[in-house]
Structures are given as structure tokens and as C-alpha cells.
Amino acid sequence: QIKGFIFDLDGVIANTSVFHAKAWHQLADKLGVTWTEDLANQLKGVGRMDSLNLILKSGGKENDYTEDEKVKYATEKNDNYLGLLKGLTDKDILPGMKEFIEDLSANNYLISLASSSKNSPKVLEALDLEKYFDARVDPSTLKNGKPDPEIYVRGAEVLNLKPEECIGLEDAVSGIKSVNGAHETSVGIGDPEILNEADINFTDTSQVTLANIKKAMN
Ligand code: B16
Ligand code: MG
């Protein structure tokens, strides 16, 4: 029986994944790494330093920079991302997600956040959604980022639920792998051909309702 829902943030609740992509694209250009759709998909859901390493690897530049230089570039990307976040309001919640979260809360489901982003508290606050969350995984306490299952394992633990009592919602391949590895039910939001490992697929957030999820689980 499902008792809890574990949410990714960027690309599931907020349209901020386009801001992350824009800021990474800008850095890739600066580093002389070709930006492709495939690279953009690989970066989705993946933490800050892991993302930078994927970009460098894609350009065959994984050995070109010291750790200090990498931290400098990652910080530069984050500063650009924070600039793009300015003016973020509840209007930037993806279609139907506020209603869905309110519905879960009204039906006494527990809700936690499993975002890789260190900026997630800031984003949730700007969207005025913190009040709905019973718990949050702090990504800075994790040993391994998505696609490792750790963040979704913790997402259930912080709610005092078993993995099989939880549903994880994701827009990224890395995130779906993490939910599946944690033995929870995975809901993929986006292109079903890309998110083909998800247990349940929706092409966009407006289809994500309790009724549709219950229907898909039968
Ligand atoms: P930050 P999610 C992820 O958030 C984003 O999808 C990913 O693009 C970003 O690089 C990562 O957070 C780290 O974010 O640099 O802000 O700490 O999708 O797991 O909510
Ligand atoms: Mg995401």
C-alpha cells in the first residue's frame, strides 16, 4: 500500500531544469565542449560536480583541469543559475503540480523531497510549497548522487516508510534509475522513450494526478 510520495524538484515541480541546462550550456561553450541534446539529458538530475565532470568527459577534457579550477567553474555555473532564478514565483510551478501536491496532502499521504540540488530550499520557498513537505533529504549528506539509489532510499527513511510504500516522481533517467534501485514505484514525467525504465509514464506534469496514478497501478 502506497503511503508516501518522494519528489524530485527541478523538472518535476518547477520549470527550473531549463535554467540548469541554460547555465551548463553557457559553461560548456566557454570550455569548448559541444552541447548536444544527449549531453543535456545526461546532466538532468545529476549533482553539480558530477555534472561538470560529465561535460568535461563529453569533450575529452576530463584531465585538463585541477580540482580548484573545477570548483571555480561549478561556482560560476551556479552564480549564473542563481541569476536565472531571480523572480521565480509560484507561477513557475509546472502545470497541475500544486493541485497534485495539495491533493496528496489532503489525502494524508506523506511527502518528501529528493532533489540533488543544494538550491532546493531556496526554490521551494520561492514557489511557496515548503509547507506541504514532511521531510527533505539534504543532498550534501549523500555519499553518491543519482543514479545511485541512496537519495531515494533516504527519501523513504525520512518519512519512516518502507521503500515499497513509496512512489518516486522523476523527469531524469538518472532519477528513475535511483528510484528503481531503491525498490520504490517510479513515475517518469517526460518523453516515455527516454524514461523507458519507469514503472509508470506521463508525458507532462498536467497528467500527474492521484486518479491517474491509481489507474496505472492496477
Ligand atoms: P545545484 P533535481 C538537480 O535537481 C538538477 O536536475 C540538476 O540539473 C542540477 O545540476 C542538480 O540538481 C544540482 O543542483 O547545482 O543547484 O546543487 O532534478 O534532483 O531536483
Ligand atoms: Mg529533475
UniProtKB/TrEMBL annotation:
Top-level taxon in the UniProt lineage: Bacteria
Enzyme class label: isomerase
Pfam families: Hydrolase
Entry-linked SUPFAM superfamilies: HAD-like
Keywords: Carbohydrate metabolism, Isomerase, Magnesium, Metal-binding, Phosphoprotein
Cofactor requirements of the protein: Mg(2+)
Catalytic activity, reaction form: beta-D-glucose 1-phosphate = beta-D-glucose 6-phosphate
Enzyme nomenclature, EC number: 5.4.2.6
Keyword field contains Isomerase: yes
Sequence similarity: Belongs to the HAD-like hydrolase superfamily. CbbY/CbbZ/Gph/YieH family.
The protein's name: Beta-phosphoglucomutase
Source organism: Companilactobacillus kimchii DSM 13961 = JCM 10707
Lineage summary: Bacteria, Bacillati, Bacillota, Bacilli, Lactobacillales
